[in-house]
Design goal:
heterodimer; A: mainly alpha; 4 helices; B: about 270 residues; AzlD domain-containing protein (chain A); transmembrane (chain A)
């Protein structure tokens, strides 16, 4: 039930925020400070989520395991401008390989 | 801005085909010629297919986080903004309560409002169409639409990307969620790395400026430091503070040195758009 609550809240919130952008008169969201925050907020959240899901291990725990190798490989793929899907595949395959080797 | 490091994914890059190349073939009065329309369709299909297929990773991730197939599909159908979906599922899997989990997903989805703002001026949708188009306002559709030459090509690019991505993302979510059981332990296949890899791929094109890199580094430090101290789902909200903190630091430094903050925010259109 709590999962459905989370899904409902996220669905409504994410839809309304999309509609807001299309409907609001320009200018309201175009203040310089708001714009700069809008650029940096996703950067902060995505960086944090990448780190948390790479190093997170159970409630309150951190671990350095095969996922870190997979993400490092994905970072290299991004540096050589590999397509989106290939970047994900590289992360998955390298993580699986390192894990299979006992890493 | 774009998850897909293609030419179409870079709003600042021009369309791959110089529209001038096809000018002799069409009447001079045609405002949007076949070349621009072809480019819009090609960009839309390319981004839509590549990113749409990664819905499989979402389906598997959702299922292995303990969500039912119905719940995974509901997320893709109703939320339809990938980063928020991965964030929500990750927070729930880590044991976060539904409110902090939804808050993290919501803040991540808030960037779509700014895409909508830029698209509203470009697509000039009729009022009745807006509630439907809004559901497709995401990284990929914005990146493709903003990269096209002219409003009609932009509208076509938006529609093709949105339709391709919506259909594929939902079909592959279903396949991933159903297939997850057959895979056994998703970790053995390395599929627990798919979520963070998606975040990293979305993040990478945003890291061009020094301010963006400082924000990312500070956010990582804040998030990891908060993990042992705070309940699951909260560290990512703490990390969001990196954005205002970096802006404050930049503002303070600019005041000390007596120069303006400049436009080092990495946005292509800057503040002149007001």
């Amino acid at each position: 039930m709590t999962v459905w609550l989370a899904i409902g809240l996220t669905a409504v919130g994410c839809y309304l925020v999309k509609l807001l952008g299309l409907s609001v008169p320009a200018g309201v969201l175009e203040r310089p400070l708001v714009r700069r925050l809008a650029v940096l907020l996703p950067v902060a959240l995505l960086a944090a989520l990448t780190a948390l899901q790479t190093f997170g291990a159970g409630p309150g725990g951190l671990a350095l395991d095969a996922r870190a190798a997979g993400l490092a490989a994905a970072a290299v793929a991004l540096l050589v401008r590999a397509p989106f899907l290939l970047v994900i595949a590289v992360a998955v395959v390298v993580t699986a390989a390192v894990r299979a080797l006992g890493g | 801005m774009s998850p897909a490091p293609t030419t179409a994914g870079r709003p600042d890059a021009g369309p791959p085909d110089p529209p001038a190349a096809t000018v002799p073939a069409v009447p001079a009065s045609a405002p949007d010629h076949a070349g621009a329309r072809r480019a819009a369709v090609r960009d839309g299909l390319g981004v839509g297919i590549a990113v749409g297929l990664s819905g499989f990773a979402f389906g598997v991730t959702a299922a292995s986080a303990g969500l039912s197939v119905l719940q995974a599909c509901a997320l893709s159908l109703l939320v339809f903004t990938g980063a928020s979906q991965f964030a929500l599922v990750g927070a729930l899997a880590a044991g976060g309560n539904p409110f902090t989990a939804a808050a993290g997903a919501f803040f991540l989805g808030a960037r779509n409002a700014f895409y909508g703002l830029r698209l509203a001026g470009l697509l000039r949708l009729r009022r009745r169409l807006r509630p439907f188009a809004a559901h497709w306002v995401i990284d990929e559709t914005a990146a493709v639409a903003l990269a096209q030459a002219g409003p009609r090509a932009a509208r076509l690019g938006f529609a093709v990307t949105g339709a391709t991505l919506y259909v594929l993302w939902n079909v592959t979510t279903l396949l991933g969620a159903v297939g997850a059981g057959a895979l056994g332990d998703p970790a053995a296949w390395g599929l627990d790395a798919a979520g963070p890899a998606v975040f990293l791929a979305l993040l990478a094109p945003m890291l061009e400026g020094a301010r963006e890199r400082a924000t990312a580094a500070l956010a990582v430090l804040l998030a990891l430091a908060a993990v042992p101290l705070l309940p699951a789902g909260v560290p990512v909200l703490v990390a969001a503070a990196a954005a205002p903190l970096v802006l404050l630091a930049a503002g303070a430094r600019a005041r000390r040195s007596g120069v303006g903050t400049g436009s080092g925010d990495g946005s292509a259109d800057g503040e002149a758009a007001r």
